[in-house]
Amino acid sequence: MTTLGAVFLPTTPPERLGAVARTADESGLEKLWLWEDCFEAGAVSATSAVLGWTQRLHVGIGVLPVPLRNVALTAMETATLHRLFPGRVDVGLGHGVQGWMGQVGARVESPLTLLEEYANALRALLAGSRVTTAGRYVTLDGVRLHWPPADPPRLLAGAQGPRSMRLSGQVADGTILVAGTTPDGVRAARALVDEGRVAAGRMDPHPLIVYLLAATGAGARERAEGGRPSWSRPGENVLAVGDGPAVADAVQRWADAGAQEVVLQPTPDDPDPEGFVRFVAEQVRPLVR
Predict the structure, then answer these.
(1) CB 178 within 8 A of CB 229
(2) Mean pLDDT, the chain, as a whole number?
(3) pLDDT band at 234; cut points 50, 70, 90
(4) pTM summary value
(5) What is the pLDDT of residue 232?
(6) What is the sign, positive or negative, of the torsion defined by CA atoms of 131, 134, 137, 140?
(7) pLDDT confidence bin for 233, thresholds 50/70/90
(8) Residue 58 pairs with which residues in a beta bridge?
(9) CB atoms within 10 A of CB 258
(10) Topology of domain 3-287, CATH
(11) What is the DSSP string of the chain?
């Protein structure tokens, strides 16, 4: 069964998050996704607040930019979230937008190398191991978490290019694809991710999670076209626009292409963030197989 989620955009004032989270929880939304875009809201603090405000809602962090955070800190934060709220959070890792990383002096020459070293070290730390490693970017000397999670959580990775997708297959437990990915792009991503999984000898499930730009209500088409990702080709059908059945039909296209989780992403100028998550949970979810 396809998991259906929604995004709380970091361009929305953080003080709106409580009402959106409670609405999502009350309406039965499966998962609320948070981003850590520079220099907006911190995803870990926001995730902790959402989990504390709600009873059953799951939260996805998509994604933490790894150049911005020391791996030991990410391990501490992730372990704490999982001990406080077992099974209710997924953490995604990513290269970070290179321009932003440059602004804070954290840009690296090889983002792929950093992500590989980082993911491997983070996985070992969350498993409770004492980790010593001296990589190109990640260095740890006998580091061990005092409070690792009871069960090692799955780690996701954001990926857009072919090399990143193959790497995600090697080191992550699921891959997050950006809005603007077509159904054919999902199929291509599956092939690339599976190449990485085979190379690493991995046989465990590896879900694909895709963001899908969506709009409903007055001015939906105009808002969606205005928010169309810049990397999508003109005329590509990469939007979900209209009422519940129309958006559900769009979600189904991406699910049929192989996305195990579809995350509806509102436009930056969506006038009603609470109404958007309620729409996803109550009018779209029941119509998606």
Answers:
(1) yes
(2) 97
(3) confident
(4) 0.97
(5) 81
(6) positive
(7) confident
(8) 31
(9) 17
(10) TIM Barrel (3.20.20)
(11) --EEEEEE-TTS-GGGHHHHHHHHHHHT-SEEEE---TTS--HHHHHHHHHHH-SS-EEEEEEEEGGGS-HHHHHHHHHHHHHHSTTSEEEEEE---HHHHHHTT---S-HHHHHHHHHHHHHHHHTT--EEEE-SS-EEEEE--SS--SSPPPEEEE--SHHHHHHHHHH-SEEEE-TT--HHHHHHHHHHHHHHHHHHT--S---EEEEEEEE-STTHHHHHHHT--TTSPTT---EEESSHHHHHHHHHHHHHTT-SEEEEEE-TT-S-HHHHHHHIIIIIGGG--
Structure confidence by residue, pLDDT tens digits, 149-160? 999 999 999 999
Is residue 62 within 8 Å of residue 34, measured between CB atoms?
yes
Confidence of residue 237 (pLDDT cuts 50, 70, 90): confident
Which residues, listed in sequence order, are joined to residue 77 by a DSSP beta bridge?
none
**Neighbouring C-beta atoms of residue 271, cutoff 10 Å:** 12
Q: Which of 175, 159, 179, 155 is nearest to 263 (CA)?
A: 179
CA distance 117 to 173: 15
CA dihedral 138, 169, 262, 224 (to 10 degrees): 70
pLDDT at 236 over 90: no
Q: Which residue is listed with tokens 């996805």?
A: 60
